[in-house]
Each structure stands twice: as C-alpha cells, then as structure tokens.
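Board notes (copied after class):
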Amino acid sequence: MKPDTSRWRDPQAYAFVKGAAADAIAWEFLRRNPQYQQDYAASRSTKAIRALRKRWGLQFRCQA
C-alpha cells in the first residue's frame, strides 16, 4: 500500500513528528521507501517474512 503523499507540503500533516519517538519517525521513513513497499507486498509466506525482517532489521508485534 502506497502512502498518501497528497499533503506532503502541509505542515499539519506532520505535526505529530514534534512529539514522536525515534522509532515512530523511523517507521515514517521506512514505510515510504518504495523498495520496502515492494518487499512487504511480496512477504506472504513465513520464509518471506523472515527475509523481510532480516533485510530491514525489523521486529513485528504478534498478530493475536
């Protein structure tokens, strides 16, 4: 899923960054990366998810 970039020049769209933790800001950069988007879209199997985690240095919360 591609992020909505229609408001990228709108300061209000990024007001959350002022109080955001480093991991939240890192996520905002990562989720906009076209290569990450491709890798994520292709990660349908457990093996592919492991490769995604290793390549991008990620940990995912449990899907309960």
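Comment from the instructor: The mean pLDDT is 84. The two ends are 22 Å apart (CA to CA).
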